[in-house]
Amino acid sequence: MKNGITLLVADHGLGYFVVHDDDRYCFIPTDGDVPHLALAFGWSPCSRCPNTCRGATDGTRNCPHCTGNVHRQHAIDWLNAQDGDWIAAEPGYFAPVSPSLNHDMVRALYVLAASYYHGQWSRGYRLLCRVKRYADRHGINLSVKTRVSQQLLRRLVKRYAHQL
Ligand SMILES: [Zn+2]
Predict the structure, then answer these.
(1) Is residue 76 within 8 Å of residue 12, measured between CB atoms?
(2) C-alpha distances in angstroms, 4 versus 8, 96, 153?
(3) Which residue of 32, 70, 102, 124 is surrounded by the most CB atoms within 10 Å?
């Protein structure tokens, strides 16, 4: 059975869908473990540093030339340019991920986008369309609200509502 994953940029600033070849997927928010996601797709943390610091960090800690936060931002910039990339071996996103958490995240993203998008050309509207497609494809009922989806929504609104 194939065990590859595809990266989909949910929208710049929001996060990333990691989609397994077997159609499972998970959502990594921008404030989640983005450096390791980038590493999995082939990012190299010190690529903008002098040669001497190759291998000094995994992208989450300081190296001799950059802080961990700068590496993190580089990882985000890099991932945003890799929309649609596929790698052959998924590095462990799927064993620990609970499908119900993913459903709740998709519900929360949908309500976020539906409530805060500004017009048909906005990033919020693109997110809305993308999340709707996901929900349709995976049989997720978007009209269901759960305690977890409401919690996720409150976090997302605080962080992202003004960017949509
Ligand atoms: Zn470095």
Answers:
(1) no
(2) 13, 16, 29
(3) 124
CA–centroid distance, 72 to ligand 1, in Å, is: 12
CB within 8 Å of 27: residues ≥ 6 apart: 10, 15, 16, 17, 18, 102, 105, 106, 109
Question: Tell me: the pLDDT tens digits for 29-81?
Answer: 888 899 999 999 999 899 888 888 877 788 889 999 999 999 999 999 999 99
- Residue 135 C-alpha from the chain's centroid: 16
**Inter-residue contact 26 to 97 (CB < 8 Å):** yes
In the reported structure, the alpha carbon of residue 66 is separated from the centroid of ligand 1 by a whole-number distance in angstroms of 6
- Beta carbons of 43 and 78 less than 8 angstroms apart: yes
Cα–Cα distance measured from residue 87 to residue 41, given in angstroms and rounded to the nearest whole number: 7
Question: Nearest to residue 34, comparing CAs of 68, 79, 65?
Answer: 79
The amino acid sitting at 154 is R
